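Hi again,

Forgot to attach this to my earlier email, sorry! This is the prediction with magnesium ion bound. I've pasted everything inline since the attachment limit keeps bouncing my files.
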Amino acid sequence: MPGEKNPLDTPLLGLPGVGKERASQLERLELRTVGDLFLHRPGRYEDRRHFEKIAGLKLNEPALTHGKIIASGVRRFRKGSQSIFEFILDDGTGRLHCRWWNLPFMEKYFKVGDETVVFGKPNSLRPRTMDHPETEVIQALENSLHLNRIVPIYPLTEGLPQRWLRSLTWRILEQFGNAVPEPKLTTTGKSALGVSLLSRAEAIRLLHFPMEIADTEAARRRLALDEYIELQSAIQTRCKNLERNARSVSCSGDNHLIKPFLAALGFHLTDSQTGVLREIRRDMAGPTPMRRLLQGDVGSGKTVVAACVALMALESGANVALMAPTEILAEQHWRNFRRWLEPLGIAVELRTGSTKTGIETGQEELRLHRSNVVNQKVWVGTHALVQEGFTPEKLGLVIIDEQHKFGVAQRETLVRKGAYPHLLVMTATPIPRTLGLTLYGDLDISILAQSPPGRGKIKTFVRDSTGLPKVWKFVAEQLSKGRQAYVVYSRLEAEDTAAGVKAVEKEFHNLEKTFAPWRAGLLHGRLKSEEKNQVMAAFEANHVQVLIATSVVEVGLDVPNATVMVIENAEQFGLAQLHQIRGRIGRGKEDSYCILIAAGKTEDSIQRLKIMEETSDGFRIAEEDLRLRGPGEFLGREQSGAPPLRFGELSRDIALIEQAREIVRENLKLK
Ligand code: ADP
Ligand code: MG
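Structure tokens for the complex follow:
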């Protein structure tokens, strides 16, 4: 009812036991209202129905135990200001020393006689000792809440006791637990799908006070479903509004430009490429603007597809904007598009904010072609295209390359520069299905499954740095066979030599000598645009045989004669990124070699890199990355444009995400 207050909006400040000081502590955790507190997710749980006996504690094994404090005090060392606070816990079977370094004020929180729960890892058994364990003093009267049950352990802030927050949550659940509304969409949706789920109110109760550990996952899933439904509603509503309101110009073309383009191209399109183009042409013919994601592994030939799509729009009288994430890539596209389209009488203009020359050259080209009665245009550029000063006329198609490097907001800003232009976004990052549905739920997806024929294999090897001399010898052999090589570093400058992370500038000087008389070039993001172009042109022309670079080589370079890729400190990169970088080789007929050097000998990082030896399937690599490193790699904050998920865990929620999609889709159909 309008005007009626939602009980979950009740401020915590002023509720029994919550004074100004507590309220400001809660505020630091962004807990202001009853509803906020309900969604404060415990970081973990302790099963306090079962405690280890102190006598049974094992070295280095995390354990939960409890007992009575029989002694406590601070010891200070004579030298300096070092101190140790220690108490001794006794449970009748044995004694446990709990110690904290340099936190003398801890003394005031513990008294002899306190019943105390301790969670930690014994780091010695003689005497039994835990350093910096988690603790909680239990007061006799509160036993029901803090003992003999599974208890939530919350993220805290300074001065806020675990016990106090737990009691507050308990009391507030008593008072407001029944006021948690059931979202309509979830209820109707879940019964339609035949999914049995907890109610939201039940889920919140079990999130904080589960009866069994399994309850916590059931609760998480229920709350995650609500999050996914919200996300999907936003995405699908946007699509629906677009469908209702947006009227785009039909841009399916008449082939008068594509025909001569393909004839001059020098190769035939693959079946995948023609298949994708057929899908795209169908979209572009319709009255609703196309919104399509083209996924294709590195080297699968997305650029040619983009050119054909651009030609469809140009044939229909519309102009085109193509945005790429880096200057290197934008300039490369610009060169390709000029080579392909200028003979057809289309002007291709470059816009890259930071380089004045870029724009000037572009305008020069434009002037050049005025005489050709140019009234059709392709703008190629970086983020400069998103800036206010850029006001394209008759923008009928927006193409975004390497979409994962942009945010949704940037993409939409460019789209709004036209009147409902068609949109094609391209990415070489194989997006795991879960993420695809979440991030790109508003896009149709096409996949370039097949790469152009006649390419050699890529063989990948993982080595530790003791193997480097052999690696350089191997590279030299390949160079003497007439091949070229990349050597990639994760850093430009060494800030942190202690960690063994090498920097490209320093290594360049070493490697230049190692590989003489072959010539080495240096490429990194901070070079001036002309310098970058010079180095890349020299490498492309084989004046330079070894390109020593940072991950800027990740996109754009296309040199079929380069068949060796050495990546130092490979452990510093995500697998998906390594896959991208590796995609620079394997573009010619010869077999290629990728050698990943892991610094140090940490088993974990070597195991992770071994996946690269096993597979060149970008989707498998991406799934693996998602499993190992979480969605951060794919979900840069600005990238997703989505609210953060508190309960959703993308790497294991595929079924839930699909349910949410289905629920929202059914619901929108009814409207
Ligand atoms: P990506 O999908 O990584 O953007 P590119 O578009 O840069 O790949 O294409 C990689 C290389 O493959 C380019 O040199 C391109 O000219 C070439 N190529 C694209 N399609 C074909 C094809 N059908 N046959 C042969 N070579 C092709
Ligand atoms: Mg590309």
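The pocket of magnesium ion (ligand 2) is lined by residues 302-303, 401 (CB under 6 Å). The longest helix spans residues 213-245.

That should be everything now.

G.
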